[in-house]
Amino acid sequence: RNSAGIDLNDRAILAETAAAIAATPIANDGTDAVHADPRRASGKAKRKLAATTTPDLAVHEAVTRAQAAYAAWDRRPVEERAAIVERYADLLEEHRTELMALCVKEAFKTIPDAIGEIREAADFCRYYAHQARGLLAPMTLPGPTGERNELRLEGRGTWATVAPWNFPLAIFTGQNIAALVTGNTVVAKPAPQTPMIARRAVELAHEAGVPRDAFILVTGGADVGAELIADVRIAGVAFTGSTATAKRIAHSLLVDEDRAIIPLIAETGGVNAMIVDSTALPEQVVFDVLTSAFRSAGQRCSALRLLLLQEEVADTILEMLRGAMELLVVGDPGDPATDVPPVIDRDAYERLMAYRASVQGSWLKTVPVPDEGLFVPPTLVGIDSVDDLNREWFGPILHVARWQAGTLEATIERVNAKRFGLTMGLHSRIARSAEIAETRARVGNLYVNRSMIGAVVGSQPFGGEGLSGTGPKAGGPHYLPRFCAERAVSIDTTSAGGNASLLSLA
Ligand code: UN1
Questions:
Q1: CA of 237 to the centre of ligand 1 (A)
Q2: Is 301 in the pocket of ligand 1 (CB under 6 A)?
Q3: What does DSSP say about strands 236-240 and 158-162: parallel, antiparallel, or unpaired?
Q4: Is 0.95 exceeded by the ipTM?
Q5: What is the pLDDT of residue 46?
Q6: Any residues with CB less than 8 A from the CB of 222 and at least 6 apart, and which?
Q7: pLDDT digits 0-9 by tens, 224-263
Q8: Helices 96-107 and 11-23: crossing angle, nearest 10°?
Q9: From the CA of 167, how far away is ligand 1's center (Å)?
Q10: Is the CB of 483 under 6 A from ligand 1?
């Protein structure tokens, strides 16, 4: 099953969701965002709030409990854990309208994106549950006669997970379920912007049968995250967020000489480019650009940041894109018609608006937005060359440059030279160009003739390289093993080894 079973044309579900949104007792519908919720407040007020927010449990106590719960959880047969995780997926779907409403209210998700959250979270659960059953079954390995060799994957202990606000249910669930289904226990820190979604997700996991102490939430800001990462009892860290924070985490895992060397799985940002040549279908390019750059207000790490148009079609495509941007509906995320919601908080709003103002001379297009609320106008910014953008702006701001026919390979190398490596798009009908992109693009996810967002669990394993993260890819076949300890057991079964039959001293 690869769907939350929600049809956007199903009026009953939309009505149910609208009612749930109205009944969700937290601030804002995207229009009163600035005033109503302290988490949307200025940086200073937000820091104060983070400092005064009482974590559900103090970090030290949370790790102590999760450690104590580890042995029993890891010893449960994988089938039991997998069944609990599948039950959890069912619960996520049963509670979908409530969870969607939380996504809309707390994270400003549009309704289609909120549906995506439920679907992706449930998909992660089912995919990882299915995979764990095979992966954690003991494997017999070949060896000489008289020797028995087995390889087992098991949990490592207690993981720390640090999740982002931009996929407050999907990525939060993916990280935590991967750790849990493989036998680990987890202390999870959600983003300070989205604690309520996380709390509800954890409650439902407990309801599904995950022991309370196997999955513990700690909430708060960067200070709580730092304290969690600094706890030497942690057996691994899964992080999604900024490149800078990932580096700080990597550093803090290494400074203590006595500390075990533990895995860090980091999924970070990108300066994602789409290259369009003269054989591309312009209407499709325009649609995919709108989707990739402006949907979710550009707040996906997969989002398109840099559009590279072949000189000969640049003016035509820009003209069509300008026209299409006029049709974007920017507004209340709870309205099913909305394409572009507000950005996550006042800090993000101010950062993006200041940058946007600083490049005003290069605007190629911008669109009006409602006066009240954290709406960053979708904006096209012209730049002279592919080399002129080297950092990620996490919002609905798309940079555009031109490239010359015959330089596809060189253009891809110039994108590679930014050293991010998350997503790249190519729009072309030339098979040779697709081949060049496939072999040259140093990215985790290459998308040809389609949008660059919305990676589907199991079909498009997602994650990058370089400054974009460590891998392995979430929703792919290599993700779970990273959460596991690998143990090989070799037994001499000859009489010389004394182990022809191991004594059973029951
Ligand atoms: C992220 O923004 O952190 O492909 C990840 C997508 C999502 C992944 C985005 N599944 O847009």
A1: 19
A2: yes
A3: parallel
A4: no
A5: 45
A6: 50, 245
A7: 999 999 999 999 999 999 999 999 999 999 998 889 999 9
A8: 60
A9: 8
A10: no
